[in-house]
Write a structure and sequence with these properties.
The protein is of the alpha/beta class and about 425 residues long. About 40% of the residues lie in helices and about 15% in strands. A 7-stranded mixed β-sheet has the order 2-10-9-8-7-3-4, with helices on both faces. It has a 4-stranded antiparallel β-sheet with strand order 11-12-15-14, covered by helices on one side. It has a two-stranded parallel ribbon with strand order 1-13. The chain is globular.
Amino acid sequence: MTFPIEIIRQLFPSINRPNAPIFFDNPAGSQVPQGVIDGFADYFTTMNANQGGAFATSQQTDAMVYDVRHKVADFLGATNPDEIVFGANMTTLAFSLSRAIGKTLKAGDEIVLTRMDHDANVAPWLYIAEEHNLTVRWVDIHPDDCTLDMNSLESALTDRTKVVATVHCSNAVGTLNPVAQIAQMAHAIGALYVVDAVQSAPHVPIDVTEIGCDILLCSAYKFFGPHVGILWGRYDLLESLPAYKVRPSKNKTPYRWETGTPNFEGICALGKAIDYIQHIGEQYGADYAHLFPHAGRAKQLKMGMEAIRQYEKTLVSRLLDVLEATNGVKIYGITDRERLDERCPTVVFTHDQYTPRQIAEHLAKHHIYVWDGHYYAVEIMNRLGHSQHGMVRVGLAHYNTLAEIDHFGEVLRQL
């Protein structure tokens, strides 16, 4: 089935309006469908109350949160909704997690990090390494295609490794890492495996059971939802770690990890984002049903994400064509069209005559929104020699079009 891009775009008010810009800034935050916007109004109109009360609106809030936990569990391939933790954002949850894990470690224990990750999956571990006198071992990348050096990873793992933390998809160069393989390597030496899936969640089906990780984090505002952070963790692990909480709050997972009053309106809107992806699976994902053994909503969500993935492969292929045809441009990351399954539709480049900011400003004048700089992926920018200015990042989403990419190329060549 052909991906119904015009129907999809009509569901996004920010796109489906006169003189709408071209949103190629999606890795920094996606646009949202009308249903997500309606989710905020629905919450404030019908159930605006704190949780745990004896009255109707409080009980409706309780029921809504529980329902959305189920939806997110299905989205991530989890079997237990109580393994889903909501927070302010992925970074806040990562700091809470690292602090708790740090309490279980001792001097001389080791943590393995990569030169590819966003700093939200680096800094939390560096802090606890300093606090507890831990050793940090770094995994390098292959600069030629910006993939993870698996030999470097193997060399970094020792019998003292306690945590391995990697990104699923790079927010800078778009590389998809072999997370299931990394999970096996980490578990073979008795280490925990923590996955940052912020950038993969909008682009590929995720299944924590298939990955085999211990913790996975993501952010709803990257997959067409609101600013709500999500942490999935093995229930036994979340129950055993020393969560930091106020004394009167529940000491049961997931509540022991959710500090303060949750963002109920955001959680309600998050549920609508999941509904939207399920709708894509129901209506346009039938061609991919055979790929997933799941049932019900979990299957439909995987079908929806696979439909998105396949359409985005056509987009990123065209984007690579356009950039390769532009004089002065150097692309970083996987460009082989036979390897598009190894990347997400996030592409970075530099120009031999213009800085990334000059290019971003030029495109912005023509209502094309891209990002420039390091996007908090400071390690890979340092590794590739672009710590000063960073690169230009073009991040595509399933509501973008081939025509938008062609127009981007025309404007870029006007420099």
